């Protein structure tokens, strides 16, 4: 039987690293009930037993300030894991133990994993583990998650604690006479009326009322409005008294007393320093240079340039293998399947459609590997810190930076978690402005489009082109944010404080797990959502096709071509190898290929999708888009990867030579109407036009109204088209 344990801790405490160390590849991602927030679970098997491990969201407290804190708290209360393992950064013990104290107040079994012991030792910090465990009255195990040190002892301690089945007594801290008296009064009311006592300890519920926890207060109001009103009257009375006598409020007093409790424990010879604790540490010395006002931005651009150079240099070879594989697969299907709809579906709809997206897997994988390295090393947090200065200028909050980065601010993220990341923003207006601008980032869905166009038209300067695309998306998002904050979403900016974790050398195992998780999500999406959409779009680009009269016109062209030039039957000429044909028959074969291409183009234009694309061409031509590009962009409203798969299908259905096996980028580079200017126009449009359907739904849910989701679709598309038209028209004038 598996023992259920939950891993919790502050962000940057090494929680996810420990989760990966414990579970390895035996993990999967789901969702917490009722919310679109990821829940990572995994199985850990050891000599201490088998454990079902849940990686809770990183949080600083159990107060309902953000969705992460609410989700973590609800999981602990509703799922009742056998043990919660609180991962604590040993080099920042006082701050990290704040969450531990709240777990103990909640009255749930806790084991403290004292992580990053190597970092603490390098800083001259010595911790008496036994003394700390004795004073906290919970087991404390030293660990180094990145190397796996302490893993066995941790699992054995957890198993022993669970087997002991020791009753957990909630921790009681003195919060000063005023609050203690109020707590006793409220606890008595709660116990006598059995108010939420089936869910939470009575004293903990009283604390949440004093902390103005809106989730608990809302739950209490539904449960028993009379008791709720009685408790709120006590809160109001003590709040008024504290304000008059000490100039503070219960929430601040409770936080101060918790830190005082932690400080008093650490002062009892728990922590000693081999050197001055205020001495400048290695990470701080690096930050003096890396986050310098002048050198920092230059270093950041250089790192991004290096990331793109690494991706294209080392991803090009395996990408060639993938393209060759799908080319070979298409050739096999070409020879194995009889002519007809099934052959067209397999080659044009599936292989050229989905294969066009999967062909970019090596580049996506190398991009994710580079991003994982920057994230695990601690550099991404420095990027957020530096960009805060810029973001405030444009009316956004510093915390918006992380939402932008999660959405693909470097490349390869996703707008959906980026939209959800805005929950950490306290100001509703800053949150809304961030919600509406994170879709401009270069998410993993847009990346194949950019890579395709860069490979086709800017192959000599791929890294520089990708860097330029990244800068355009950031600058555009910030300018739009400034416009929105100056017009529709006016309001004051709020201050920004964030933690800078120490620099660490990422572990190979951690990098591989993070890279695999993100790459697999991309592959899974291509094999499910993109496959379904590709087949649907293939059908729309195939039916109704040409009628009999139109087909007869092309058949007459073939007969007329052969008259007077050959006596060989046309079917023999079509199937014969060019080397085996006479000069006259070879000329006929080449003419037949041209007529086949014209028929395929006519059939594609006459399809449902073709008619839509042609109908939009009267407007889209000003941005340099033809009817086939229009079809691809319409599919992109569902998912941006579809742009590539649709172009693959469109240029497969209408290619000049049915046996041509060149990659899509090669086909585009020689296609009529395409050139660097058209590519730039399409890149601009892809950056800024409407978010994919799933992101639109998330925006509606997070903003609390479909009005803002509709605004995002309409405004973004109008902005994208306006910018693309400007780029194409101005570029055409310059080049003429």
Report on this structure:
With 736 residues, this protein is of the alpha/beta class. Among the domains are: 162 residues, P-loop containing nucleotide triphosphate hydrolases (Rossmann fold); 97 residues, Helix Hairpins (Orthogonal Bundle). Helices cover 65% and strands 7% of the residues. The protein contains 32 helices and 9 strands. The chain has a 7-stranded mixed sheet, with helices on both faces. Strand 2 and strand 3 form a beta hairpin. The longest helix has 42 residues. It starts with a strand and ends with a helix. About 2% of the residues have low confidence.
Helix content: 55-70%
What class, by secondary structure content?
A: alpha/beta
Strand elements, count = 9
Identify low-pLDDT runs: 31-36, 654-661
Mean pLDDT: 81
Q: What spatial order of strands do you see in the largest sheet?
A: 2-3-4-1-5-6-8
Shape category: elongated
Reported CATH architecture of the domain at 3-164? 3-Layer(aba) Sandwich
Care to give the gist of this entry?
This protein is of the alpha/beta class and 736 residues long.
Key features?
single chain; two-stranded antiparallel ribbon; seven-stranded mixed β-sheet; 32 helices; Helix Hairpins; 736 residues; alpha/beta; elongated; Rossmann fold
């Amino acid at each position: 039987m598996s023992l259920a344990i939950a891993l919790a801790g502050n962000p940057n405490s090494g929680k996810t690293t420990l989760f990966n160390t414990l579970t390895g590849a035996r993990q999967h991602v789901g969702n917490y009930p009722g919310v679109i927030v990821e829940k990572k679970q995994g199985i850990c098997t050891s000599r201490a037993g088998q454990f079902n491990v849940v990686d809770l969201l990183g949080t600083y407290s159990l107060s309902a300030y953000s969705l992460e804190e609410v989700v973590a708290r609800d999981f602990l209360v509703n799922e009742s894991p056998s043990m919660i393992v609180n991962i604590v950064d040993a080099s920042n013990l006082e701050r990290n133990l704040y969450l531990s104290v709240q777990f103990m107040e909640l009255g749930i079994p806790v084991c403290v994993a004292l992580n990053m012991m190597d970092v603490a030792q390098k800083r001259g910090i010595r911790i008496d583990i036994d003394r700390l465990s004795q004073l906290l009255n919970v087991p404390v195990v030293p660990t180094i998650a990145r190397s796996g040190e302490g893993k066995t002892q941790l699992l054995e301690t957890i198993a022993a604690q669970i087997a002991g089945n020791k009753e957990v007594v909630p921790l009681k801290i003195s919060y000063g006479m005023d609050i203690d008296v109020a707590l006793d009064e409220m606890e008595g009311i709660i116990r006598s009326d059995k108010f939420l006592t089936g869910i939470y300890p009575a004293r903990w519920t009283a604390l949440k009322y004093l902390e103005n926890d809106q989730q608990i207060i809302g739950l209490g109001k539904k449960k028993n409005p009379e008791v709720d009103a009685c408790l709120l009257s006590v809160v109001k009375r003590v709040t008024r008294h504290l304000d008059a006598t000490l100039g503070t409020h219960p929430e601040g007093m409770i936080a101060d007393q918790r830190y005082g409790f932690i400080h008093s424990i650490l002062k009892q010879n728990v922590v000693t320093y081999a050197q001055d604790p205020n001495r400048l540490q290695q990470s701080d010395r690096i930050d003096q240079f890396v986050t310098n006002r002048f050198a920092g931005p230059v270093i950041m651009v250089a790192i991004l340039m290096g990331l793109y150079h690494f991706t294209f240099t080392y991803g090009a070879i395996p990408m060639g293998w993938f393209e060759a594989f799908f080319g070979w697969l298409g050739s096999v299907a070409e020879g194995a399947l009889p002519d007809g709809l099934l052959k067209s579906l397999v080659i044009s709809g599936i292989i050229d459609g989905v294969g066009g997206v999967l062909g970019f897997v090596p580049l996506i994988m190398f991009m994710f590997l580079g991003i994982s390295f920057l994230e695990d090393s601690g550099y991404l947090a420095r990027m957020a810190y530096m960009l805060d200065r810029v973001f405030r200028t444009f009316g956004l909050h510093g915390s918006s930076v992380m939402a932008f980065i999660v959405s693909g601010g470097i490349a390869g993220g996703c707008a959906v978690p980026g939209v959800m990341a805005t929950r950490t923003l306290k100001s509703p207006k800053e949150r809304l402005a961030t919600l509406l601008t994170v879709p401009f980032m270069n998410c993993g869905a847009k990346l194949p489009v950019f890579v395709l166009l860069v490979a086709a038209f800017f192959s000599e300067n791929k890294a520089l082109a990708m860097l330029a695309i990244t800068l355009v998306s950031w600058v555009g998002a910030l300018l739009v944010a400034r416009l929105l904050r100056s017009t529709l979403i006016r309001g004051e900016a709020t201050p920004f404080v964030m933690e800078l974790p120490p620099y660490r050398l990422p572990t190979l195992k951690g990098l591989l797990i993070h890279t695999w998780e993100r790459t697999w999500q991309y592959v899974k999406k291509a094999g499910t959502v993109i496959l379904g959409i590709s087949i649907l779009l293939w059908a729309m680009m195939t039916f109704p096709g040409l009628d009999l009269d139109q087909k007869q016109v092309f058949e007459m062209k073939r007969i007329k071509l052969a008259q007077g030039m050959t006596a060989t039957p046309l079917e023999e000429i079509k199937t014969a190898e060019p080397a085996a044909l006479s000069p006259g028959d070879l000329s006929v074969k080449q003419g037949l290929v041209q007529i086949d291409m014209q028929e395929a183009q006519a059939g594609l234009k006459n399809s449902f999708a073709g008619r839509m694309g042609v109908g939009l061409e009267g407007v889209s031509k000003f941005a340099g888009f033809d009817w086939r590009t229009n079809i691809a962009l319409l599919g992109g409203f569902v998912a941006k990867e579809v742009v590539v798969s649709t172009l693959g299908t469109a240029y497969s259905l209408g290619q000049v030579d049915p046996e041509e096996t060149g990659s899509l980028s090669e086909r585009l580079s020689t296609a009529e109407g395409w050139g660097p200017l058209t590519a730039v126009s399409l890149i601009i449009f892809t950056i800024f036009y409407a978010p994919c359907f799933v992101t639109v739904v998330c925006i509606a849910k997070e903003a609390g109204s479909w009005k803002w989701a509709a605004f995002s679709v309409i405004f973004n598309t109008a902005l994208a088209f306006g910018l693309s038209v400007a780029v194409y028209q101005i570029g055409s004038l310059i080049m003429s």
